[in-house]
Amino acid sequence: MSNAGLRAYREVLRLVRRLPAETRPYYAKYARENFVNYRDLSADDDLAALLGRAYTHSSWVLSKYSIDAESEKAAVRLKDLGAGQ
């Protein structure tokens, strides 16, 4: 996995910590499985698309639990990673 992928994974795990305690194990496992499934991705365009999806999905999960993604620093960094690819 590229450095951008590892940084994105780290930011997603930071966002998972903002979720209610009873939901954290599920979303942490879900994130790990998805990042492991795509760890061999080589094309930069595909990586950028996946990082964008990671941000979109993370924002959706945060809003589901009434957490404002725009105010979360980890979400902003995740968004920047996707845009920077």
UniProtKB/TrEMBL annotation:
Domain of life: Eukaryota
Name of the protein described by the UniProt record: Complex 1 LYR protein domain-containing protein
Similarity field: Belongs to the complex I LYR family. LYRM9 subfamily.
Occurrences of domain Complex 1 LYR protein (ranges): 6-55
Coiled coil start-end: none
InterPro entries listed in its UniProt record: Complex1_LYR_dom (IPR008011), Complex1_LYR_LYRM9 (IPR045291)
Organism: Urochloa decumbens
